[in-house]
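REQUEST FORM: STRUCTURE PREDICTION
Request ID: SP-0412
Submitted by: Lab K.M.
Chain count: 1
Length (residues): 181
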Amino acid sequence: MEKTGTPIGSYAPDFELPGIDGMVHHLARYLEKAPAVGVIFMCNHCPYVQLYLSRLKQIQSDFQGQGFTLIGINANDDKRYPDDSFENMKQFAAEQQLNFPYLRDVTQDVAKTFGAERTPEAFLIDRSGILRYSGLIDDNAQDPETVRVTYLRDAIAQLLTHGSVTVPSTNSVGCSVKWRQ
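STATUS: Completed
RESULT:
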């Protein structure tokens, strides 16, 4: 699949997606209150997502006092990957004690519009709705103790402090988004 999506410095696509909390979530509503929003394309079964979950929850905890929020979005084809069904998302979120919203992109339109290719893949959006960072969470999925560069954490801190990000994109690693056939 050819890389498409939202370029850094462009408006992020708004979305209206169901959450595991029974509510419909709109990016625009978050941006009314938050100085920055992180969108993480993720799923239930990817080993990379599982390696990063505790770090994602810590990022949410560390920055929520500044109005920041993460939003997890699962766009995987749940017909071919039943582990990623909406019901399994609810169970996964409860078991993993997610501290951020977890949404379902059934049509995969949001993932395609953002240009998501992997799980997990991070996108950081400023208050004006402009995409400021996309890519990796950090430089070592396997071992949190040996992480040298915390790309997403650094981008959030820079955006909240200075309004700009020094490293606007990296190439994400992880499982491929499971597109419908």
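NOTES: The first strand starts at residue 16 and ends at 18.
Reviewed by: T.R.
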